């Protein structure tokens, strides 16, 4: 399945410089096709506050089961 906006995804690996850890759940807010395929994903804390919104390559994400 190809992710699209508003899909829920899981981060595949740690990104300590961004405050993100493997397994965190995020929501796709946009899809970019140029210069290469990437997904803008918003990650939030337990209170719903945005931690970071970041463009990620598809291999850094997997669909949430």
Jot down its keywords:
mainly beta; single chain; 65 residues; 0% helix; five-stranded antiparallel beta sheet; globular; DUF4926; DUF4926 domain-containing protein
Write structural notes for this entry.
It comes from Rahnella ecdela. InterPro entries: DUF4926. The protein has one domain. Helix content is 0%, strand content 45%. It is built from no helices and five strands. The protein has a five-stranded antiparallel β-sheet, with no helix packed on it. A hairpin with a 5-residue loop joins β2 and β3 (38-44).
Low-confidence regions: none
Q: How many domains is the backbone divided into?
A: 1
* Alpha carbon gyration radius: 11 Å
| Global outline | globular
Percent of residues in helices: under 10%
N→C terminal distance = 11 Å
Q: Find the structural class using helix and strand composition.
A: mainly beta
Question: Numbering strands along the chain, what is their spatial order in the largest sheet?
Answer: 4-3-2-1-5
Strand content: 35-45%
Please tally the β strands and state the result.
Answer: 5
Number of helices: 0
Overall pLDDT: 94
Report the biggest beta sheet as strand number plus sense, adding barrel if it closes. Answer: 5 strands, antiparallel
Which H/E pattern describes the elements? EEEEE
